[in-house]
Specification:
Elements (H helix, E strand, L loop, with lengths): L17 H4 L56 H21 L5 H27 L5 H16 L5 H5 L3 E7 L4 E5 L4 E4 L6 H14 L12 E5 L3 E6 L7 E6 L7 H6 L5 H12 L4 E5 L5 H9 L8 E5 L16 E5 L19 H8 L6 E4 L1 E2 L4 H9 L5 E5 L3 H14 L5 H11 L2 E11 L5 E15 L6 E10 L2 E5 L16 H10 L5
Parallel strand pairs: 7-12, 7-13, 8-9, 8-10, 11-12
Antiparallel strand pairs: 1-2, 1-6, 2-3, 4-5, 5-6, 13-14, 14-15, 15-16
Helix pairs in contact: 2-3, 2-4, 3-4, 12-13
Length: about 525
């Protein structure tokens, strides 16, 4: 009996396929265990009127084999990717034990080599059985999926990589919605095979955080900085595991850029720039998704490079420490929740609070202390920063500018460190301006709808003798058609003319809009 020849590989040399050569690409170094999102944000989105000077910042190096997918990327068989991930993870663990690595870069390089092997083996097996192989793009997409499952955000990663996505909203593994840049909300694909698998993914991300965090029935909330995005997740106390990922699209941004986006008028931009330079303390307020952090970054861009900055955030998202050309010296403190164990002082072991960071920062010769987001007791650190006379900047959630002071007073009282009278007194003395944002939806001539964000109002805060304990003067008031317009310029703010603000232009605009000259 004549022996039949076995099928032989007649396809291209796999080493020459982009899928595999890309595994040798350089990647950014990272601390061991740090959660990395691994995406590069594009520099233009068609639905957003972006001025030419505007930049969006993410990780500049690719973490995955081929980087972000395009809208024409092939569909991935996630079941197959999961099977290959299991094989690659086992092989990866065996080799890692034999040749320990010292940093995340070498760890991922080893992972790439292992993924290259298992995808190559799967490709050869498919050829042996079916006599054909998938395209190079399909192989690349499969390898990217395996990499994302091992080192990234799993099935969430392709959604985070999309430049047109602003928010990813997950209510259970199969109810996914995407907030697009233009304001549209569209359905998204499942992000796991089951709710249990989604929880396992979140627990894996928590364990890879630096320091590792616990996501369990005893700790049902998870907050992670993903280096370009922010993840908030809850399970065990919600009817289904729930996740919201907010992408930071605009990190390198200026007030001039916001003028181009019609978020502020040139006059309002000039006023805000002068207020920052004059070291007025400012709180940016608005509802969720109004662009508070983006405006805060634009205000920070008015701070000169000679100033030494300190930032204090529960989850690091401002990103000033990344902009070394604009802010050469930034000390960035991030809160750390600690483990479930309690120390002799009753605090969770390894816990680090913003209060700890603020206390330490007074030895760092800071020119400004910037407390990012104030949601609750962080207000105590905000007040401390503002009382230091540093021209601090913060954000908070409030439905209107007039509600902001009451919101901050309530937070101060809930912290247990202030009575109402003491909170009002301190805020009235140290807070200079409240800048309120508003979102609106604008329909274009083609019928498309996009989300537009504008500064809706600016209040000047001063001590008052009335029952409220403070006085609020409307400097810029709401305009239905766009950004706030000039209204009243208090005498104490006329000093802003020494920082580039033109009071005469303000008075002319105020007269046109019924304000007080």
């Amino acid at each position: 009996m004549t022996k039949q020849p076995q099928p032989t590989w007649e396809g291209p040399d796999l080493a020459s396929v982009p899928l595999f050569t890309a595994f040798g690409d350089a990647v950014d170094a990272a601390r061991p265990g740090r959660v990395r999102s691994g995406f590069t944000l594009s520099t233009a989105v068609a639905t957003t009127p972006t001025p030419s000077s505007l930049h969006v910042v993410g990780r500049e190096a690719k973490v995955g084999p081929m980087g972000p997918p395009t809208e024409h990327s092939p569909e991935v068989d996630w079941d197959e990717a999961s099977e290959l991930r299991a094989l690659a993870s086992k092989r990866f663990s065996e080799r890692a034990a034999q040749s320990p690595f010292v940093d995340e870069t070498s760890r991922q390089e080893l992972g790439r080599a292992v993924i290259m092997e298992v995808v190559q083996e799967a490709t050869e097996a498919r050829f042996a059985v079916h006599g054909s192989v998938s395209s190079a793009k399909a192989q690349d997409a499969l390898a990217q999926a395996v990499f994302d499952l091992m080192f990234g955000l799993g099935r969430l990663q392709p959604l985070v990589d999309r430049a047109d996505v602003e928010n990813i909203i997950v209510v259970g593994h199969d109810r996914v919605f995407l907030d697009l840049v233009g304001g549209e909300k569209v359905p998204g694909p499942p992000v796991a095979a089951s709710d249990e698998e989604l929880i396992q993914l979140l627990q894996d991300l928590a364990s890879r955080a630096d320091p590792p965090r616990v996501f369990s029935d005893a700790n049902p909330d998870l907050h992670l900085n993903l280096d370009g995005a922010r993840l908030a997740a809850s399970a065990f106390v919600t009817h289904r595991p729930s996740v919201v990922i907010r992408r930071h699209r605009l990190v390198r941004i200026t007030l001039d850029d916001l003028v181009g986006l019609d978020t502020v008028s040139p006059l309002l931009a000039s006023f805000l720039a002068a207020a920052v330079k004059a070291r007025l303390s400012i709180v940016v307020s608005g509802q969720q998704g109004d662009g508070k952090t983006t405006l805060l970054r634009a205000l920070c861009a008015e701070i000169g490079p000679e100033e030494v900055l300190g930032t204090f955030e529960t989850e690091r998202e401002l990103g000033l420490e990344q902009l070394v050309d604009e802010h050469p010296v930034v000390f960035s403190w991030e809160a750390r929740p600690g483990s479930g164990e309690r120390g002799p002082d009753g605090r969770p072991v390894n816990e680090f609070t913003l209060q700890d960071g603020m206390h330490a920062s007074f030895r760092y010769a800071l020119d400004r202390q910037i407390v990012g987001e104030v949601r609750g007791r962080e207000v105590a650190q905000m007040i401390m920063a503002m009382e230091s006379g540093s021209g601090s900047l913060s954000t908070t959630h409030a439905a209107s500018a007039s509600d902001t002071m009451e919101k901050l007073v309530s937070c101060a009282m809930q912290s247990g460190e202030f009575t109402r009278d003491s909170a009002v007194m301190k805020l009235a003395r140290c807070l200079g301006l409240v800048v309120q944002l508003r979102s609106m939806y604008v329909r274009g001539r083609d019928g498309s709808v996009r989300k537009r964000r504008v500064v809706d109002e600016v209040l000047a805060i001063t001590p008052g003798e009335e029952s409220a304990g403070y006085a609020a003067t409307t400097v810029f008031r709401s305009d239905a058609d766009g950004p706030a317009v000039a209204f009243v310029l208090p005498d104490h703010l006329r000093m802003l003319t020494g920082h580039g603000f033109t009071a005469n232009e303000f008075l002319l605009e105020a007269q046109r809009h019924g304000g007080v000259a």
